[in-house]
Design brief:
Number of strands: 0
Distance between the termini: 64 Å
CATH architecture: Up-down Bundle
Oligomer: single chain
Shape: elongated
CATH class: Mainly Alpha
Helix content: over 70%
CATH superfamily: Fumarate reductase/succinate dehydrogenase, transmembrane subunit
Number of domains: 1
Strand content: under 5%
């Protein structure tokens, strides 16, 4: 009996669902940000800063960025697993992208709580 070799991402439903959930979180944040900006924004730096001065908007923005980074990770990881066949190159690319996304998450946190 020949055992089939399974290659590629093949993570299935879990990753599909994570992609949809993160997309919904990002879409809801976009609407919330648009409402917040349009209701209290007059074009000045102080009003822009005022939108993000509350804890809710900082948390919502951080949640948006975490969703964005996780969404990007799943997509890029699946592309690498499907199209980059040499294991060493694929592992290197996975590592670089993971480290960049973790760094971006830290940078986003620093920016949001520095205001």
């Amino acid at each position: 009996m020949v055992k089939p070799i399974i290659v590629g991402a093949h993570y299935g439903f879990r990753d599909w669902l994570a992609q949809r959930i993160t997309a919904v979180v990002m879409a809801i944040y976009t609407v919330v940000l648009a409402v917040a900006v349009l209701s209290s924004f007059d074009g000045s730096y102080e009003s822009w800063r005022g939108v993000f001065s509350g804890g809710f908007m900082r948390f919502a923005t951080f949640l948006f960025f975490m969703s964005l980074f996780f969404h990007a990770w799943i997509g890029v990881r699946d592309i690498f697993m499907d199209y980059i066949k040499p294991t060493g190159i694929r592992l290197t690319l996975h590592s670089v992208v993971a480290l960049l996304l973790i760094g971006y998450a830290g940078w986003a946190a620093q920016i949001l709580w520095r205001l």
